[in-house]
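Open question from group meeting: does this chain pack into something compact, or does most of it stay loose? Before anyone orders reagents, we agreed to write out a predicted structure and look at it together. Recording both the input and the output here so the notebook holds the full record.
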Amino acid sequence: MFLLRIACLAWALLSIATSTLYGSQSLSLPSLAELENMVEQGPEVLSSMAALARDEHIEHLVRQRSGPKFFAGISYGYSDEPESETAEERISYNKVTARAGVSFPILGTWTKEKIEILQSELRTLEGRILAERTREMNLISLRKAYMVLWGEGQKRRLLSDFLKSREATEALLSKRVREGFLLEADRLEFLSVYDVALRDVAASSRMETQALQVIRLATGQSWQVTEEVPFPTLPGWDYKKRRPLGVAHLTNVRYNNRVLDIYGRILEITKKIDRDGTVEFGATAGRDFPGTSGAGVSIRLTVEEPFASLRAKKDEARLAAQADLERHRAEELKERLRLEGELEDALSLLEYGSRSVQAGIAKVQASTEAVRVHHLRYDRIGGDAFEKLEESRYAHLRAALELVDAQILVLQAASELVRFFPEGEVQRGCPLSMLGLDKPLASLPKSPVAMISSPEQDVQTSTILTPSRKNTSVYVWNAAPFLKSETRHRELKKLQQAGFCRILLSFDGQEIRSFSTNNSRLSLMAFLEQATYMGIQVDLLLGDPTWILPEHRMELVQLIRFFAPFPFKGVHVDLEPDSLPGAASKRSELALELLQTLKVVRDNTDLPLSLSVHPRYLEGELGEIMGRGLVALSMEDVAVMFYSTNVDMVTDRFGALLKKYPDLPLLLAQSVESILSPRESYATLGRDILWSRIAYYNGVFQEENYRGVVVQAWKDYEEMVR
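Structure tokens returned:
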């Protein structure tokens, strides 16, 4: 207990120090996709870009200084001299002379100026390579640090679950020592694992701090982990197609031909550059005081060359340029071989990480079974079976921590491999999907093992979360809170805690138009990634009854194609024929048009397709039309809008539809809208009544095609009373 208090005190002091250090300037950590967009603002990248700008200015300056040069000058003189060599009389006068002209470099002087231009061009190119290379490296560091940050959060949750049982375990072990069933040395050994776990918590916090520092330096922002770290995805890892790996598009290789070309041009013109020369064309004008004015023109040729250079048998400057070219060719080969080696190493590391994850899953499954067996034994025979149970729990914890480490290894290896994908890869995905997992965290839920909080409680042993056949969905017509990074996690958490595991999400026109910009696209991608990480399915909700009509059908198709790059889990269309003018007199015709619209949607997307429909379209003569048509379209599900709080009516009518269409998956839609009456909506009845009815329906409807309940709508649900 003393050590636990010390650890808690240290943690509190660390939290206070961190809060004081970063204060209100620290921002909540966004998703990896959003962070990647901020790499351009990292101080190291900004420094290299400033250096590049300096080199570009110097290159322009060198170009300005080369070539013909204008010269001008003015001189003033005073003379006092004899009229002649033998005369005693003297003449005194003042003289002003002006001179101007143009000087042209020739021979080695002109060659050296051209070489200086090429060298400045080379420095600019090398500066650009350095800037892009710095960005590449910062991006890799950012991604790898984010993987560590995510993994350490997983590990601390595991450790926290394990540490919850410390007090109860210590009390029971002390009791067994007093009763003479356990030695004190054994009790201390059992309890030491909790101190090891506390040490692991401290080590994990340090790793998180180091990873955060890398992210701060890479983005130029002060971040703080205030909530759960969104699950990391990487561009190019959607695994819908194989991607060739290579190094030709990487910065150091991509610019190599341009660099070699400059070195080659320098070699080509480097001949006898020590022979300097200039040609000057000038004009002069002067006036003597007293006296008259005069003018003249001149041409001057100047050639200079060192004596040693005249006698030299070798052109050392050319040989030096030749050596420089060969040096760069060798360096280019070394760089290409290095990058190809890094590619092979990343592939090997990915293979090793994948094997480690598979081995880790097997170990977690084995340790889970061991915990279950030892818990059953302890329930039946008690005694020293408890010590075996504690040993198996700790082994389970270590296996789970090793599994997290293996997943971090896979994610970091994938982060290295991303740069070897072809340029232009933007579709993001989960690298762990290559292991054949159904979703990113299938092998490691938030808590791979549910650690018991006291020795007397049952152990829940579940390493893979399997969603229930009967899920509860909700319509969400206001997407803004889910798109903003500062509210995204909180909104998803509220929705998850409420009990919903599927969102039918709609966007307004302005939001849809904004997705053409990079920032808004990243916000939507980050939301979808976060929802997937939290186990919440997000379907795209599209609703406009005019799309039923042939003349407006392509508008819906265009939207489907627009949203195709985003990883929604399905497409849900809410097309109510009765909302169209004169619908009551032509429902059969509209039903056929609706089926045709759904067929067009099916032809333009591979995502599962679902529909909201009024029950009248599945009953009577309309049901004969719609029912057969929907079954033929292989719908994911059809939400039947029985907006009624009359349990008997809903049970009878919806139950009849389940039996009538055994091949058509059906959802029961219920309303909580405040604008409806208490006979139609649960708005005034409260959440508790709503969930008790949902539980009732889930128990009553046992047909295989029953898919649960969908609630209309989230905003109204938030405003409901308990």
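Observations to bring back to the group:
Residues 129 and 426 are 23 Å apart (CA to CA).
The first helix runs from residue 2 to 22.
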